[in-house]
Amino acid sequence: MTRLSINLNKVALIRNARGGNLPNLEQVAIDCEKFGAQGITVHPRPDERHITFADLPKLKALVQTEFNIEGNPTPHFMDLVLKNKPHQCTLVPDDPSQLTSDHGWNTIEHEAFLTEIVSELKAAGIRTSLFVDPEGKMVEGAKKVGADRIELYTGDYAHDFSKDKYTAVKPFTEAALVANQIGIGINAGHDLNLDNLKFFKENIPNLLEVSIGQALISDALYYGLYNTVQLYLRELR
Ligand code: PXP
After folding, report:
1. Using an 8 Å Cβ cutoff, are 89 and 69 in contact?
2. DSSP 82-125
3. Helix or strand or coil: residue 2?
4. Could you tell me which of 113, 188, 116, 123 has the C-alpha nearest to residue 150?
5. Which residues contact ligand 1 via a Cβ below 6 A?
6. How many helices (H) and strands (E) does the chain have?
7. Taking burial as the number of CB atoms within 10 A of a residue's CB, which of 13, 18, 57, 196 is the most buried?
8. What is the Å distance from ligand 1's center to 227 Cα?
9. pLDDT on residue 99
């Protein structure tokens, strides 16, 4: 089974545009779970442009499924994660000014740093996932630093899907085979949507979780949140 974790950054972004509490992020998280989502993901960035630091303990208190916090492990981010103890922490090498994550870790170059961070999270009982591009060496590096899972960065897959979906998915299938061989779990995310999700799932053996935000929240404008969650769950069945 592949779990659907809904990324709520875009809900927070709309809320922050007016400075009030509409839409109510906590209620949306509760409803996503009620409608069938198996996880809630947030990616607090240093400028708090969408998820704020104050959102974290509120979400931690109410999420019943899996709470996943993503981000670049700066000292401040690590402090937030260790205080709020999510079930999973996904480490992403993004720059503070970056619009969105667009590449994975070089797990070989950053081996010493990642080993230290992963062991700190492990000691706190938090499962750790490393955002990586679909390259066997990076997957092996993630295993070497002690990560429990990788999250495959699927931006390139989504971009190339309409040109040739078979070519687009190939490096991801190959990376997944490496991950399965060496015994590290597989998550995936970025730009997954109702067109490209099913084919991705079908071609990734043992895909444990996808985290989806932008497309899912956009689809909810047309179909409503309940229907949209059902549509995504159907693709993952
Ligand atoms: N995974 C990571 C590491 C991300 O940074 C994001 C975007 O915040 C996602 C998954 C979800 O991507 P999208 O919003 O395109 O579904």
Report:
1. yes
2. HHH--SEEEE----TT-SS------TTTTHHHHHHHHHHHHHTT
3. coil
4. 188
5. 7, 9, 43, 70, 90, 92, 100-101, 131, 151, 189-192, 211-215
6. 11, 8
7. 196
8. 21
9. 73
Q: What is d(CA 237, CA 232) in angstroms, rounded to the nearest whole number?
A: 9
Q: Which residue has the tokens 């730009």?
A: 191
Domain that holds residue 221: 3-236
Say whether the peptide bond before residue 205 is cis (omega within 30 degrees of 0): no
pLDDT tens-digit profile of 64-101? 999 999 999 999 999 999 999 999 999 999 887 777 77
Q: How many domains, the chain?
A: 1
Please state, in angstroms and as integers, the Cα–Cα distance from residue 137 to each residue in 28, 101, 109, 199, following that order.
38, 20, 11, 24
3-class DSSP state of 17 = helix
Cα-trace Rg, the chain: 17
Read off the CATH number of the domain in which 15 is found. 3.20.20.70
Per-residue pLDDT tens digits for 13-26? 999 999 999 999 99
Q: Whose CA is nearest to atom 1 of ligand 1?
A: 189
